[in-house]
Write a structure and sequence with these properties.
Blueprint: H1 20-23, E1 27-29, E2 36-38, E3 41-43, H2 46-53, E4 61-67, H3 75-81, E5 96-99, E6 104-109, H4 116-123, E7 128-136, E8 139-140, H5 155-163
Parallel strand pairs: 2-7
Antiparallel strand pairs: 1-3, 4-6, 4-7, 5-6, 7-8
């Protein structure tokens, strides 16, 4: 229910959930749309942010999605081959799909196009009802945190982004 931005004149932002001195220093690393829940990283380090978001680094993002309908049989193969999305000049990088049930999946993508996961499932003839980001690179959402809560990353979590070949 908040936007992934530092400031917005009309809507609450992720930075509005932070103590003021911290909110003035950090920015979101990538984005979650307003209807998506889950892990969002914040930083004051532009190089570190670039390491996570730049397409050349292929940093994995893992989402859990609930779909409106049962997934088509060949969905995993089509996603692994890289789908062409409407209005795009090149196909999406291969994505990995794990079926959890007929209408619940886990998907791993390595790029950050606009509404990418929702658009991938639309291209498969489906609609995402709920979307939750579980992991970015080597950092998984801390199960002890409730929505809107935050914690600092460990040194090991921060270093992962610079040492990984992901």
């Amino acid at each position: 229910g908040v936007v992934s931005a530092t400031v917005d004149d009309r809507q609450p932002t992720v930075n509005s959930l932070l103590p003021a001195p911290l909110a003035r220093r950090v920015h979101p690393v990538g984005r979650l749309d307003k209807a998506t829940t889950g892990l969002l990283l914040l930083t004051d380090d532009g190089a570190w942010s670039h390491r996570i978001t730049a397409p050349r680094y292929h940093c994995a993002k893992v989402y859990r999605a609930t779909l409106a309908e049962a997934l088509v049989a060949d969905a995993a193969e089509r996603l692994a081959a890289g789908l062409m999305l409407r209005g795009e000049a090149k196909p999406v990088r291969p994505a990995r799909l794990q079926r959890l049930s007929a209408t619940e999946v886990r998907i791993e993508v390595t790029e950050g196009r606009y509404h990418l996961v929702r658009r991938l499932f639309a291209a498969l003839g489906n609609r995402v009802l709920t979307l939750h980001r579980e992991r970015v690179g080597g950092v998984s959402l801390d199960p002890k945190l409730r929505p809107g809560q935050w914690r600092r990353l460990t040194d090991e979590e921060r270093r992962w982004f610079f040492s990984s070949a992901d």
